[in-house]
């Protein structure tokens, strides 16, 4: 921006939503806000775990087919906060596996909790973390036979940043792997509503998952709630520590001690998201970003790049074989004034890739693609 | 409720606000909610540390006289969440001092972080925590000469539950004590707006405090934001670890990794709270609860009880010498159907006391006091 003060910079970098929240949802939040100034509509502290009606609505909307119940849902101020609360639950003396590449919050919170060893500069990895390499060669699903046993496995599908989604068969293997190892699987499904094929939208669609998995999710990328802050974590009653104690009871203690519930206004918004009209409106927002994704994929495909993700996620993972992802990032920024994200920011496995996010106004996405075509024609 | 299904139970137990949020504040939140459904008004992720304007407004409203700046304020979803984020900052290998009695979140979060030793049933204390006894005899300010050195000191003034406020002279001693010991003082000022004498409203009014103290505060008890969720933590740039590294930089990393900012709608509410009209409206809410407090104090005084707190805090701390606080709690509940809080829930130093909260509708407070008078006449 210093070099080119007049440049029209377009950000397809961090995955920040750009489209307005549907009015049926904001109206519900405004209504709740107004009610708080009335004697009958006022409410103070809510349940730390979330309002009963919202928990029930999340359970019936997303988990009816797998039989999760209201009291297995913990409403939160977003997936990022809940990942850290889960890390507090796990404590410092656990070992961890993550997809490589993956959303940085898993590793970053692990470092903060003191779970990791030293950062090894030569391989760009922290000690005591198992990096499960996800590449085009293995279909972005790790070769589990080469993954060591860890206490915790973080797994995100549809994946940020690769945009790939794990199939039912792959997730069945993953659940079995966790079960065999006595690992807890933390499944991040924050992009599940972008899935348009028959891949599982929840880990709990996999038989036996309730005994090994926790699912973290969010309204951020569905309804544009990145600033409103609302998410949830599902912990089945059937998930037990090896001594038989329910993990959900322990997490409940964390939630009640370290958190005081999501904003009641945001919760009113969440409830509106799950009403018939709200849900349809959310799907329209998701559909808009999916159209953006298609435009970006078509662009890079037409330029002869190998492009991954996109189909079931709002991220396009573009391969620049043999090149440094920071170098490509800089080249794109310098020459097209479009911000992307260098793949190596998501772990060493992201080297050679750039993530292009589909969160943007349509005209900006089209203009960015026009510039990409000019640069790489 | 099972025993007396028709009883009109009045809760003066947990400190939950009951009065509507002033309309000037809820209107601002409703407006922000509506704006989120417009192209120009929409915003996604905000700064994890809070919106610049709100940080500036908190700094100028509460800290202009002590010279704290905007970038020393971290906006949060409430004091309880920030206490736990501070505990994550401190880690497991620290020692801790707390007032006894005190708000349970300090000890509870300390236990969860693994800072404490075993619970010693005979004294009702956790190992590795220094309990600083606060009694009528010492004016509810601990005898610092008998307090061992700890890494961290939690201190709440006006105090929950005793309602007592520390004087400038006492806080000067406390700051000196922290400085002499190389301790970090975490000062909880969530009730500061209830102070009506010349006691300090912020620890930073004490010379030298910026080099030893962090201040945690909240909109919950000022504007009725217990359900809306908004607070802040002030960390001066002058607060350094012994190796010279700024504590604020470390906390910034925690906030950016483990949190994604308070809800933008709640932040719009916070900004409205600090507008001239909003501030006046907040002071009216505080004034309402202060009148409640006076009614409760007058009642127990007229019945011959020794009553503490109340003047500068919304809590009345009633002494029942020689009696178990749980027994008194049960007696009051059984015979008057009023919920109070047994003092021992705040630590062993709370034994023999009951906390009566002034958060309630006026007619309920008056009715509760009528029943107290009947029971203890």
UniProtKB/TrEMBL annotation, chains A, B:
Name the UniProt record assigns to this protein: Transaminase mtnE
Domain annotation Aminotransferase class I/classII large: ranges: 8-372
Any Pfam family hit: Aminotran_1_2
Lineage: Eukaryota, Viridiplantae, Streptophyta, Embryophyta, Tracheophyta
Alphabetical UniProt keywords: Aminotransferase, Pyridoxal phosphate, Transferase
Family per similarity comment: Belongs to the class-I pyridoxal-phosphate-dependent aminotransferase family. LL-diaminopimelate aminotransferase subfamily.
PANTHER family from the UniProt entry: AMINOTRANSFERASE
Cofactor(s) it depends on: pyridoxal 5'-phosphate
GO biological process, one term: systemic acquired resistance, salicylic acid mediated signaling pathway
GO molecular function: pyridoxal phosphate binding; transaminase activity
Matches recorded under InterPro entries: Aminotransferase_I/II_large (IPR004839), DapL/ALD1 (IPR019942), PyrdxlP-dep_Trfase (IPR015424), PyrdxlP-dep_Trfase_major (IPR015421), PyrdxlP-dep_Trfase_small (IPR015422)
């Amino acid at each position: 921006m210093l070099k080119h003060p007049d440049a029209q910079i377009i950000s397809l970098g961090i995955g920040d939503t750009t489209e307005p929240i549907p009015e049926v949802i904001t109206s519900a939040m405004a209504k709740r806000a107004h009610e708080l100034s009335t004697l009958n509509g006022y409410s103070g502290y809510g349940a730390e775990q979330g309002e009963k009606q919202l928990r029930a609505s999340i359970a019936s909307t997303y988990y009816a087919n797998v039989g999760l119940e209201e009291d297995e849902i913990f409403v939160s101020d977003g997936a990022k906060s809940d990942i850290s609360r889960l890390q507090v639950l796990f404590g410092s003396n656990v070992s961890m596996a993550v997809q490589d590449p993956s959303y940085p919050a898993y590793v970053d919170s692990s470092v903060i909790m003191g779970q990791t060893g030293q950062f090894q500069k030569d391989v760009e990895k922290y000690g005591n973390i198992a990096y499960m390499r996800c590449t085009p060669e293995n279909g972005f699903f790790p070769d589990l036979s080469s993954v060591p046993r860890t206490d915790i496995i973080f797994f995100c599908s549809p994946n940020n940043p690769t945009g790939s989604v794990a199939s039912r068969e792959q997730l069945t293997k993953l659940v079995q792997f966790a079960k065999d190892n006595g690992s807890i699987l933390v499944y991040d499904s924050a992009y599940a509503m972008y899935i348009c094929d028959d891949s599982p939208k929840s880990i709990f669609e996999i038989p036996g998952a309730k005994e090994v998995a926790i699912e973290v999710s969010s309204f951020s990328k569905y309804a544009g709630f990145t600033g409103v802050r609302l998410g949830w974590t599902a912990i089945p009653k059937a998930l037990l520590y090896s001594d038989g104690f329910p993990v959900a009871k322990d997490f409940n203690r964390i939630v009640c001690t370290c958190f005081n519930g999501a904003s009641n206004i945001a919760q009113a918004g969440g409830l509106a998201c799950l009403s018939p009209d709200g849900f349809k409106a959310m799907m329209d927002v998701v559909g808009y970003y999916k159209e953006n994704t298609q435009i970006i994929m078509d662009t890079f495909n037409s330029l002869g790049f190998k492009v991954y993700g996109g189909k079931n996620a709002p991220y396009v993972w573009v391969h620049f074989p043999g090149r440094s992802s920071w170098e490509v990032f800089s080249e794109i920024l310098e020459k097209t004034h479009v911000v992307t994200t260098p793949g190596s920011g998501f772990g060493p496995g992201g080297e050679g890739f750039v993530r292009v996010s589909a969160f943007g106004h349509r005209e900006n996405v089209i203009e960015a693609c026009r510039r990409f075509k000019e640069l790489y024609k």
